[in-house]
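Quick note —
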Amino acid sequence: MRVVTVSLNGLQRAIEAGFFDWIKGADADVICIQDHRMRVYELEDGPYRPDGYEGYFLDGENLEDGGVGIYTRQVPKAIMMGFAYPQADMRGAFLQADFDAVSVSSFLLPDALTNPPLQDMKNDFLEAFTAHLNKTLRKRRQFLFCGNLQTAHLVTDADPIFHKTELSGFLGPERAMLDKIFDEMAYIDSFRAVEKGTSEFSWQPEACAMSKRKPGIRVDYQIASPGLAGTVEAAWIDRNATFSDHFPVVVDYDIPY
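Predicted structure written out below.
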């Protein structure tokens, strides 16, 4: 089962920049998108559905909040919108598709790097999301949570500028929540399960642009429930994709689909 997650900075813009052309060669079973910036009723038409895929979407009360979606080759058994956290529901920030062997969700946290006033909201959202993951541990089925945490976990996941400066995305309390998810609760960072290298960044934010380079940070994740340990066969960040300033994170799992 091949799963992709990517934050788009607008679906219409991404399509014009080659997103659907990229999908043709990606051979993905499920594609989780974030930040589509469209209304659900607009997304019901053919131009926003790549050939061979069903599409499911959620929007927020404000378009600038982004919204999330899931493209899938197989019709899900069920779709769940939100996770009983009002801010996520209002922002159209969590959508889950249930398949026979696994549930796959697309999620998007608030961006406080380019919009610092959202930091408190981001902290609350991350805490609520972590609590949801903890509750999910009691369920019998397996889960993949795919999306943009707006936060890097390890020192190797962020350019040194984030180490030296108090920037949202690499603050201590944010990283402590990821410690809880990956260390205490034993969720799996699917990318890091097989890729241990440095400079494996999924975003080059304009807000941190330097004169000679654009520092990167890995904020886009596929988080697998503990029962999926050992199922990751390969993972990579496609830095050749140019339809967004986020790069797609692609993971192959030994999971039936």
